[in-house]
Design goal:
alpha+beta, Lipocalin, 2 domains, 8-stranded antiparallel β-barrel, globular
């Protein structure tokens, strides 16, 4: 049996349409599944822990290159307040594991918007205090659940930061820890450097 060029072309187009439909349906299923995996700030916490774990064995002694680029705190800062909008980066060794926009509010609250898929939840809330002149401590608490809705523990993210470059940058350290439901320490997931640049409204 022989086919004309027109029939062959129609058959090829049908095959392409069928393949495209299968890809589209698979994409919809994957998006729906991923959207139900994590909620709220847990996506940010898990993304940081996963990235830190992947490079844990590659760490070398010394400061990271990103940390070297930051300016250490100074007593000559013009803006001595942490209040405002910041672009921050979390670094383990020489590798950035996450970035975020962060708003420090008067009154001691903070909002953290990490660069993760917003369908999984990407807004975190924290509390801060000034521990010393131009040095600030921040803490987050995150409820952690697996994809089936089973409680996994409580994430603790803490930061200690010092203003630098006349108040336009900050640098310091962070830790990412897992606690159980009774608030008992389980394991440290990441320890590293956090650096930030103030975003000016001007």
């Amino acid at each position: 049996m022989t086919y004309t060029k027109t029939e062959t072309r129609k058959s090829a187009n049908l095959s392409l349409c069928t393949a495209a439909l299968r890809i589209a349906l698979l994409s919809v299923v994957m998006v729906a599944a991923s959207a139900s995996v994590l909620a709220q700030c847990a996506a940010s916490f898990n993304a940081m822990a996963t990235a830190a774990n992947s490079i844990r064995g590659q760490l070398q002694a010394g400061q990271s290159s990103l940390q070297k680029d930051s300016v250490v705190g100074t007593n000559s800062a013009v803006n001595t307040s942490i209040v405002g909008l910041w672009h921050i980066r979390f670094v383990v060794g020489d590798q950035q594991i996450q970035e975020a926009y962060q708003i420090w509010n008067t009154g001691g609250t903070e909002v953290h918007n990490p660069n993760v898929d917003p369908r999984q939840g990407n807004v975190c809330l924290g509390s801060w205090k000034e521990a010393a002149p131009q040095t600030f401590q921040l803490t987050h608490r995150v409820w952690l659940y697996d994809p089936n809705g089973n409680f996994q523990g409580i994430g603790h993210l803490t930061e200690t930061l010092t203003l630098g470059d006349r108040g336009t940058t900050h640098s310091g350290s962070f830790t990412l820890d897992l606690y159980d439901g009774s608030d008992n320490f389980v394991v440290n997931l990441a320890t590293g450097t956090v650096v930030g640049e103030r975003i000016s409204p001007d």
